Amino acid sequence: MTIAEIIRVTTLFDRILLVVLLVITGASIVLVPLYLPRGGQIMIEANNKLLYKLQLSDDKTIEINGLTVEIKAGKVRVADSDCPGKVCVKQGWIDSGAIICLPNRVVITVDGTPTAPKGGVDATT
């Protein structure tokens, strides 16, 4: 099917829906980073235990549970991992939110991202 055929078979409602979805997507790309708080502190947990509490301003490289965590220029990333898939490595540099490596059971949280309450249910229990 060519683009001309697709346009011919779409209704006015289809076009309005497409425009609304594109506007919502564009607005979220612009607004979400504005409303996510910038972090100042990094918490690194492994096996549900807090191992490190560091500042984003500290330039460091940490080896933990098969991960190489790098903090530089106010951002953090997993530089290398021995896990399959390496999803945590592909996430790249962050300055808010979290990086989670499920195979190695490591959670890197930047500032106020909520974690499971002590004794509560989380994804690994």
TrEMBL record:
UniProt keywords, alphabetically: Membrane, Transmembrane, Transmembrane helix
Transmembrane segments: 16-36
Protein name (database record): NusG domain-containing protein
Gene3D superfamilies given in the database record: N-utilization substance G protein NusG, insert domain (2.60.320.10)
InterPro entries registered for this protein in UniProt: NusG_2_sf
Pfam families: NusG_II
